[in-house]
Amino acid sequence: MLWVAAVAAVVLAASFWLNTMRDMPLKSHSGPLPPLTAEEKRIAARLREHVQVLAGDTGERNMWHYEALLSSARYIRRRFEDAGHTVRVQEYTVRGKAVANLEIEIRGRSLPDEHVIVGAHYDSVPGCPGANDNASGVAALLELARLFSRHSPERTVRLAAFVNEEPPFFQTDEMGSRVFARAARQRGDNIIAFLALETIGCYSDEPDSQSYPPPFGLMYPDRGNFIGFVGNTASRSLVRRCVGSFRSHTAFPSEGIAAPGAVAGVGWSDHWAFWQEGYPGVMVTDTALFRYAYYHDAHDTPDKIDYDRTARVVAGLHRVVADLAGDGEDR
Predict the structure, then answer these.
(1) How does residue 9 score in pLDDT terms, banded at 50, 70 and 90?
(2) If we measure between CA atoms, which residue out of 135, 133, 148 comes closest to residue 315?
(3) How confident is the model at residue 151 (pLDDT cuts 50, 70, 90)?
(4) How far apart, in Å, do the first and last CA atoms of the chain sit?
(5) Model confidence at 17: pLDDT above 80
(6) Mean per-residue pLDDT over the chain, rounded
């Protein structure tokens, strides 16, 4: 019958579309994880320290806890400077108060006008101390700053801490990364890759610990033990490069998807702001509310973070960014 053929054609087209979105190079790591390296142990300890300061000692940090927001910015600036970097401050005003994005740069040797940017937002949603969302991402950013202090890459690497990612500023002109990306486009910056570190500290090997927006649960694992690389269809090439690099270097489960930005969760971080300016952007994430029980909750505290597994992810991301920028260690 014609209707049967039509349904079959729709199913086949949908299957092809879904498989194209998740088609990634190499295979995700499976099985036991190797022992932590000495460097990964150091990263884990430092991640714990950063998250404790930001989400434990400082706690909720946003426009309604303005002094805590400023204190967080000062801490990030000190850690950037401790790693030997000069900090650029992009200040702007929101509701009569000064807020700021903070940025460092490792200038490229041979391709300095091609920029690889990694960013994480340092504010937390009202009512939440924000250990996983997003002190985990900021802690990773600070460790990348330390690790890249000994690099001299081919392309310029920029690391940025953004203010005001959370509602009510999310996807508005007052969002820190929106201000940053718009200014980059106005200057004509050639950003070849942007990675948003968003909620990266929760992992579980338990069955059914991972959920997804429909219909992606049919294609991806039910255990929340992987790191995800998420982009829109225009950023598919970048997603694949990141996943391929991570899998080639790092014995840790990983998944990737390049889906329409309208799909729930795909654009839920600072990479969205770079998409608006036509730049390729990927979110690196543990998938947040699709895994983490304390998402945007008062119990999102430092004790909930798996620091050892997050350290493995950070070590892997170090290699990914080095690959994107053209490796140049030990400057």
Answers:
(1) very low
(2) 148
(3) confident
(4) 69
(5) no
(6) 94
3-state class of 97 per DSSP? strand
What does pTM read for this prediction? 0.94
Q: Do 260 and 42 contact (CB within 8 A), yes or no? A: no
Encoding tokens for residue 18?
Answer: 């879904």
Task: Provide the residue count of the chain.
Answer: 331
Eight-state DSSP code of residue 35: P
Domains recognised in the chain with CATH numbers:
36-325 (3.40.630.10)
- Is 125:141 a contact under the CB 8 Å cutoff? no
113-135 exposure pattern, b = at least 16 Cβ within 10 A, e = fewer: ebbbbbbbbbbbbeebbbbbbbb
Q: How many CB atoms lie within 10 A of CB 219?
A: 14
Q: How many CB atoms lie within 10 A of CB 3?
A: 7
Q: Specify whether the CB–CB gap between 319 and 245 falls below 8 A.
A: yes
Write out pLDDT tens, residues 301-310.
999 999 999 9
Do strands 190-198 and 111-121 pair parallel, antiparallel, or not at all (unpaired)? parallel
Q: pLDDT band for position 3 (50/70/90)? A: very low
How would you label 5-26 residue by residue, b for 16+ Cβ within 10 Å and e otherwise? eeeeeeeeeeeeebeebeebee
Residue 76 to residue 204: CA distance in whole angstroms: 29
Helical residues (DSSP H) of the chain, grouped into ranges? 2-22, 38-51, 66-82, 136-147, 176-187, 236-249, 271-276, 307-325
